[in-house]
Amino acid sequence: MELIDQHTKKIMEGCKDRARAAGLCFEDETLEYIVTNRDLLELTPKVMIPTLYDYWVHDVEVLKEKGRYELYPGNPYETVINTRPAISFYNDNNPDWLNVMIFYHVLAHIDFFQNNHFFRHTWDDDFAGQALSDKQLIAKLRSEKGRWVDYVIEFTRGIDNLVGYHGDLSRLNRPVQKDGSKRLDYYFDVFLQSVRNVKIHEYMKEIERFNKCIAIYGEFGEKMFFSDIVKKYPEFEAFFDRHLKENNNGNGDLIQFLIKNSDVLKKDGNRWMTSVMHVVRKTSLFFQPQIRTKIMNEGWASYWHETLFLKDDRINGHEVDFARVNAGVTALPRVGLNPYALGMRLFQYIEDMCNKGKYDWEFRKIEDADIRKKYDKNTGKGKDLIFKVRNDFSDFMFINTFVDQDFVSGNKLFVAGRRLNSAKMVWEYYVKSRKAKDYRQMLIDSLYHPPHIEVDEEKCTDHALYLVHHFEEKPLVKDFIANTMMGIEYLWGGPVHLETSEVVSVPEARNNGMTSAFSPPQHKEIKEQKLEWERVLYTMENRKISKKVL
Amino acid sequence: MNDNMPAEDRKLKRKGLTPEHEQKIRLELEGDCCHEIPSIQIDADHIAPDSLENIYASNDLCKLQKTSAPKGSYVNGLRSIDELLERDKQREKDGFPRKIRVGRLVKPRKGDKEKIIVVPTTVEEKFLHEKRLSPAADEPSGGSGQGEEGEVIHEQPLHDPETQGGAGSGQGDGGQHEMESNAYDLGKILTEHFELPNLKDKGKKRSLSRYTYDLTDKNRRFGQIIDKKATLRKILETNIILGTLRDMEHIDPTGFLISPSDRIYRILSREKDYDSQAVVFFLRDYSGSMLGKPTELIVSQHVLIYSWLLYQYAMQVESRFILHDTEAKEVDDFYTYYNSKVAGGTRVASAFRLVNDIVEKENLAADYNIYIFHGTDGDDWDREGQESIPELKKMLTYVNRIGISIAEHPGSAGNETEVEQYLKKSGLLNENPGLFRLDVMHQDADETRIIEGIKALIS
Prior knowledge:
By secondary structure, chain A is an alpha+beta fold.
């Protein structure tokens, strides 16, 4: 890989100045590389991180149709990666005007990486550097332990989509507590409300009493306050201790739980495995925010490359070229979803709505459709709002909050369905719904969402590991259960149970047997079809899987 | 193609049909399909279901910079496949299931009939949500533009070129890392990786298309080695004509004139070597009932068998491809065999008869090891096998192996298909275990099952 030449770098620096002037905020240093076909061959399996650890699966074409992006949160062809300095990749034959457009796009991505709070855990380190040391660690272990390193990587990767990303994130983003102790929080937030279930007036009385204590005793107020409580609720201290223990002793996600509690991994000869597991977990965590902000990130970058490119004085004469490329990127497809187009339009819509003051309470009170339509307070706050959205939102929040009927109607969006017309032997694509509610739901359903699986420590008896898959009306892919559990069993060193939900298989009513045999599946009204669910328990013991209905 | 159907129909009626059977035949007859080979052009506005834009599928490099997916070279790929297989074997020894799958097949191109694309693939298994709860439920997508609710905005033929015919589906966008290999390599991989049995040498090796190079041709004026005898003869001939040879009893070569064209040389030439081994007949039912999965399954299996035999016989295999509905026809190349669309009724016997005819006419039995592989979904209008069984018996007199694979429809699960029934009833399977094999698989069988099936058919 080669760095871009000085001429192109100068263009980049020019773009940085203009982007900063427009309000984007990113670190000074960036690295731009020219990539060739050969580089891409090596980079794409490693999600464009040049220093990612080696793993044999990277050399194989991976069957994607089954799990698709659900399995691979990182985008294999990302142009810019979230490292320090941020690294971006370019074709060597891009004309200058195109580079200007791409640079703006890249800078907006960098701005997003460095300001969106879902990336908080990536802010303090350079992932490329970390990955390099991890790569060396794994290479070293591989030279000692051979293929067993790959087994540990494989089995840990099998559960790396269950990482407790949000848990880690919430710890990082927690506001600094100036006053108020844990004991106090527990007393008011948990003990009184959940354990004692006190009435509101009693609760208010306690607050009053606390304020009084503080007023009288100053810094000893809290102590005095609690000395009375011990008399009133002698069990409080015991409860509080247990609460502390539970929370501090939180075993985190499955990988962390295994590292902490697995008998196999505790053996002296096996300690090295935990380092490998840490590496896999860390890598997975790094990519988590990326897939959860795809629409926003691409939308944000498209919004800015369009805005800034058109204002750039250096590209005179290339407006038509730009229009053509930009249309390819940001056109709404007739059928299908384009995160660039959708995100960009949503950002533009939010800015416009806010500029008109349509997110204000004043506006919401208006019922007259005509007045609503013409309402324009010219607040000039639109830019501020989209910057705030860029700071604090993820795809789910973005869509859930801002996709409304005006947006859907304004952009002529609809939910597209596909059905079989058996008379004509064609698949028909049709407009299924133009309601914002349906469109929003369709978007949300298509977002990345790994299953919610946790360790149930109370049921972990006799060296067995008990996993619970929380019911979300989605079953697990059955083909993958056995091997994934086998990997967990290897890391855990004892039997593994998995409690999950499955659809009760109802034998399909066949019309006199033969027609269904070789006529293609008829279109059925799915809405009427009610699914019945049952809880099942998979058990993996000695690499054999068994299943029973609970 | 259905012109003769009423007569056909009546004939069948006379034999007495159950309503159920009749309905089945009707279904096959009334479909207005024909056996065309799908054209490869795809129109620009074509919306293939797999290529629907998905939120996570698009990326900056492709979208903004029009970078195409990187392509690996064939040579690099083959080397790594050996390593991968080695690793996979080791996995088994370590007590973990194998992970590499070989043989994602992309349809062969016309005129290049031995080219098959081998893609070593694997899956990283994780706990994942199933996307579709029932097969009928289709994932809705987004869209934009005009159209009332409920309005149809686009129609796509059920079986477009991408999904029709062979097993080439599912490769829509995943083609970038594919590795090209010819059928021979695939056969090698199959043999080594899946431990398919090696064929026993039957002693009479015959092949059609082997060439040897030998100094057999003669050439004047130049060549590799001078042919002294022939040259002398020629010189003599010239000198007799010139009259320089006066006394036949006392030849005096010193007076001879030698023309340059008198020098006769031996020159290297390509000789066909009739030293053959095997001819394989691939029979495929392409009747209407084979629509979709069964065809895909049968064709993949046949590709694999074809490759395996090619390797086993070190390329010395002649293959013949026969398609049949109610009538059988031979097609020229694998491409046509692989890609022809399904339509029409089913008469298994027609294909068997054609094979017997070909073997008889070309006297193949004397010189070849003959393999016959037949793929069907198990439906046959000839329910009792009255026509098929005699043809089969005839075949058994000369073949090395008949392998019949049946891809069952989900509807027929539990009860045996017609072909299976009459084959079992005939007792041919038990009488000739070495010559005649049957493999019944469900139409949803995966690749491992297909390879298991091959083992059953050829071991």
